[in-house]
Amino acid sequence: MARPKPVEFDKQKTVAENRRARFDYAVEDKYECGLMLQGTEVKALRAGEASIAEAYAEVRGGEVWLVNANIPEYSHGNRLNHEPKRPRKLLLKEREIARMTGAVERKGMTLVPLSVYFNGKGRAKVELGLAKGRKAQDKREYQKDRDWQRDKARIMRDKG
Asked: How confident is the model at residue 35, as a pLDDT?
């Protein structure tokens, strides 16, 4: 069976990346989501300030929410500043939400934010992964395979 091509999104400026998620989870599917933000949140993101290390996404009432993502207060925003860790709504199509809901409920998968970035049109987007958690043995195996791929590439480069 042919393997599907990896999905590539139009990433112009990456603001935050969750590198630990790729190690802790086996990402099976990726989605590009819009992000509902307030004005000072956009300004803080453009300044490159955000953290999604402890963040996760959940489906509530037919909508997907990004929970625990930290976008710190904008330095020049006065009384109109936002709350740093408030839940933010993710913008997806109904069919995508239904697919995610089914996978989370039936297969026990998790919605993990992989990165926050601005696309070519200047819109803030979240790369959301539908993932299955790895156990300790799987993590060791994944690391061993990754190290072997790196060594193999080094050997081929030196000989070739």
From this structure: 92
What count of other Cβ atoms lies within 10 Å of the Cβ of residue 43? 18
CATH match of 13-159 with 3.40.50.2020 = no
Distant-in-sequence, close-in-space partners of 85: CB < 8 Å, separation ≥ 6: 68, 69, 70
This prediction's pTM: 0.79
To 10 degrees, the CA torsion angle through 9, 30, 113, 37?
Answer: 50
Condensed to tens digits (0 to 9), the pLDDT of residues 24-66 reads: 888 899 999 999 988 888 888 888 888 999 999 999 999 999 9
In order, the DSSP letters of 86-150 are --EEEE--HHHHHHHHHHHHHH--EEEEEEEEE-TTS-EEEEEEEEEEPPHHHHHHHHHHHHHHH
